[in-house]
Structure to design on (817 residues):
């Protein structure tokens, strides 16, 4: 806040904080007086500094004819004191700081607050503006006060209460200054906060006065300074880092960062519109690095404005480094870090520890249980600590049970964690507890989704029991809600004591890869674990991480990458039951997809043997399903159906909805190939419903694709078109091979439905994809792209031209979609 204050005095901005009170000379001139004998000092400042009444300062002389003193105050149930009769004049104080000349943004908010001030019926007694340091609270309040001052002709009072500093102003002292500003002689001002507050409220009766209470510490500090029901036409504007939820009759305003357009406008005002417009993209990078915090934007822009040889891109590069960003956001003695220091310095030891350690966690936010794991505290105590940080604007809570830092505050929290005496040990312990929480809970989700799968029994033990879930849906909801935070934790924990658990977390969170929801993020963190384990010579962890990475690559059609990672996993630790079974199973899927049927049969046989040796029934069902797909692709439909039904029987016995959907999906494919189409329709439709309920968009798209094939084979082109279009809409998660297959079956369905123009368009898109993928074009595609080609007969085999959907198309999970 200190930096914010200085910046406001120098230049004035959305993020500025004005002086504690209008300077003596300026305030005296506004009231028609001679300048104060103590230049640059206000009476309130003299009182605040000395701790006693400023009797040495001359009495205010009004610049307007005085109103007659009111002999008696309005009757009150609280026996309000009467205004003093002697020497009382009706003074109209004008203490607002100078208007913010370059105030930017907040138009909608200012308009709404002005409307509230204008409406007599629902006008609040106070408007309490809260937010982190540098967010522009004071600038907003001063701007609002100036736009609304005509509604308060009896004067405007102002005080900086010093709430963000070590010595907040004493309400009794402030009341004394306010009473003098309202025309009360010193002899009539009583001692004691309650007595002064009562007289102050009596003085506000029948007046329309605006009171700006800037930088308040808490509700207790400002309660004596608020007008009460006896002065319904008076309003207090309050700014504070503390949320005043316990303040009666106050309208709360939780001030957030600027919008990107507002941030650009503020930056451009300082550096010049032309200079900002030329490098607009770089300006947006700068304001994003500033997290749209007005103070940070002003500092960054001020640095650039004072360096005419710099380009915006130079500043953007300097701010791109998160570890140095706070140091770069400094201009002279102004610094964002200094603003945050004021808030951190007021924390008690437990709050300060929580603030530091929570900054270590990644992701956009953190849940209450995860925060408890970081701090090593129970949920109740964690909740109390986090609520206290929210109340003073060092933490935000957008939704119940989830918390987040402003981006720059997070960087400051991490810096605090790094400079502590036992920083390294404290950080490692906190992150280890968080990793335990995620691994234990992800393992519970995996086990709930895959009854009978023994992989979780081979994971590293944890010191946290993990969360319990009553339903599979609740478990998956947790996993997807925590996906960003969970994956962000992985690369932070690749040290000696935590590395094995990170490799296991990748396997426990495999649903994130299978759903297609986080493919790039999952790939990045898996590669980070592979690299760290390889450097450390940790073959077990590297093998498991490469198995997870190969699993992901096979989803997205990157067959060469998938095969390389999976084979490397087996070379590293083929004796690990997890790697021996899962990597072999996935290699069988990849080999089948590439048309190498003998290799596929060998790998799948090894997988089936490894799953059975480990008594892993869910894994056994998966291997059977994949063997079914292999038989079907080789034209052995009878044994293909039998193997699929064996796998489905196991899934039914285990009772896992998502795995049951996998089993039905596989049976549906085999039955379609066996031309048992009505049975296939039942299985595929039920699988589709289960995939949709489990929030598996990739699998959902594949089920639509298989239903399109089935309806095309059944000579129902309209139904085939509908399902093919759905598959294409959901197919972006499956890679270009699957998109090729979806376009092919849609083209066939459209041709069979007589929609030749649309069909040709689909074929052309399919041809372009095929050429980009570097594969020979099927004869069928060439024929159907010919303008003289006849309509595709409804009885034509639907499979040529997209046989890769069975083989070449990328597998999506343990059983190839």
């Amino acid at each position: 806040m200190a930096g914010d204050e200085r910046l406001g005095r120098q230049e004035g901005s959305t993020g500025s904080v004005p002086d504690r009170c209008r300077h003596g000379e300026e305030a005296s001139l506004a009231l028609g007086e001679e300048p104060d004998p103590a230049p640059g000092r206000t009476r309130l400042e003299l009182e605040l500094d000395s701790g006693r009444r400023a009797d040495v300062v001359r009495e205010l002389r009004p610049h307007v004819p005085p109103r007659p003193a009111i002999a008696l105050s309005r009757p009150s149930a609280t026996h309000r004191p009467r205004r003093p009769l002697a020497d009382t004049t009706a003074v109209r104080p004008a203490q607002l700081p100078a208007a913010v000349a370059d105030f930017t943004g907040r138009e909608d908010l200012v308009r709404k607050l002005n409307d509230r001030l204008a409406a007599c019926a629902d006008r609040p007694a106070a408007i309490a503006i809260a937010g982190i340091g540098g967010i522009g609270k004071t600038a907003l309040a001063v701007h609002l006060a100036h736009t609304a001052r005509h509604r308060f002709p009896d004067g405007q009072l102002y005080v900086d209460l010093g709430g963000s500093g070590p010595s907040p102003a004493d309400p009794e002292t402030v009341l004394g200054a306010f009473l003098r500003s309202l025309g009360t002689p010193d002899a009539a001002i009583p001692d004691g906060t309650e007595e002064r507050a009562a007289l102050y409220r009596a003085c506000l009766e029948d007046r329309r006065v605006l009171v700006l209470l800037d930088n308040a510490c808490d509700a207790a500090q400002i309660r004596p300074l608020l007008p009460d029901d006896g002065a319904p036409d008076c309003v207090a504007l309050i700014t504070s880092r503390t949320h005043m939820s316990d303040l009666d009759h106050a309208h709360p305003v939780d001030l957030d960062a600027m919008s990107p357009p507002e941030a650009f406008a503020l930056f451009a005002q300082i550096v010049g519109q032309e200079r900002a417009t030329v490098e607009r993209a770089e300006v947006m990078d700068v304001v994003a690095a500033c997290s749209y915090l007005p103070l940070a934007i002003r500092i960054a822009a001020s640095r650039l404005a004072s360096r005419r040889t710099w380009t915006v891109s130079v500043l953007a590069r300097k701010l791109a480094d998160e570890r140095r960003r706070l140091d770069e956001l400094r201009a002279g003695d102004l610094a964002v870090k200094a603003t945050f220091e004021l808030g951190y310095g007021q924390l008690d030891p437990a709050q300060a520890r929580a603030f530091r350690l929570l900054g270590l966690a990644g992701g956009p936010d953190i849940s209450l249980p995860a925060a408890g794991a970081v701090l090593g505290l129970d949920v109740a105590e964690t909740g109390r600590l986090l609520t206290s940080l929210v109340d003073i604007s060092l933490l935000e809570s957008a939704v119940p049970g989830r918390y987040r830092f402003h981006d720059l505050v997070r960087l400051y929290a991490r810096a605090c964690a790094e400079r502590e005496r036992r920083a390294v040990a404290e950080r490692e312990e906190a992150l280890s507890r968080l990793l335990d929480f995620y691994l234990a809970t992800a393992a519970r989700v995996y086990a709930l989704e895959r009854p009978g799968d023994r992989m979780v029994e081979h994971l590293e033990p944890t010191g946290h029991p993990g969360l319990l879930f009553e339903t599979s849906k609740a478990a998956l909801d947790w996993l997807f809600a925590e996906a960003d935070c969970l994956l962000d934790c992985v690369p932070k924990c690749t040290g000696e004591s935590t590395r094995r658990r990170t490799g296991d977390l990748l396997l426990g969170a495999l649903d994130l890869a299978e759903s297609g929801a986080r493919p790039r993020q999952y790939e990045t963190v898996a590669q980070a674990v592979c690299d760290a384990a390889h450097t450390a010579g940790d073959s077990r962890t590297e093998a498991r991480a490469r198995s997870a990475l190969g699993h992901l690559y096979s989803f997205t059609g990157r067959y060469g990458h998938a095969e390389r990672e999976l084979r490397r996993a087996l070379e590293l630790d083929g004796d690990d039951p997890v790697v021996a079974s899962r990597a072999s199973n996935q290699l069988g899927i990849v080999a089948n997809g590439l048309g190498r049927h003998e290799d596929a049969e060998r790998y799948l046989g090894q997988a089936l043997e490894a799953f059975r040796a480990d008594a892993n029934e869910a894994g056994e069902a998966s291997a059977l399903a994949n063997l079914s797909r292999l038989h079907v692709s080789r034209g052995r439909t009878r044994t293909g159906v039998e193997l699929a039904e064996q796998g489905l029987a196991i899934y039914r016995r285990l009772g896992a909805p998502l795995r049951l959907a996998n089993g039905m999906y596989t049976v549906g494919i085999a039955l379609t190939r066996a031309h048992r189409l009505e049975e296939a329709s039942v299985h595929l439709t039920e699988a589709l419903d289960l995939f949709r309920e489990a929030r598996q968009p990739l699998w959902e798209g594949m089920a639509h694709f298989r239903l399109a094939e089935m309806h095309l084979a059944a000579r129902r082109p309209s139904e085939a078109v509908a399902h093919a279009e759905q598959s294409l809409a959901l197919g972006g998660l499956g890679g270009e091979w699957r998109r090729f297959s979806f376009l092919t079956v849609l083209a066939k369905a459209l041709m069979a439905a007589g929609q030749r123009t649309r069909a040709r368009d689909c074929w052309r898109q399919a041809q372009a994809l095929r050429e980009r993928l570097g594969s020979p074009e099927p004869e069928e595609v060439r024929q159907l792209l010919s303008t003289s080609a006849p309509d595709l007969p409804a009885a034509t085999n639907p499979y040529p031209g997209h046989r890769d959907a069975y083989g070449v198309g990328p597998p999506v999970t343990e059983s190839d979609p």
User: Anything to note?
Assistant: The chain has a mean pLDDT of 83. DSSP finds 38 helices and nine strands in the chain. The longest strand covers residues 210-216.
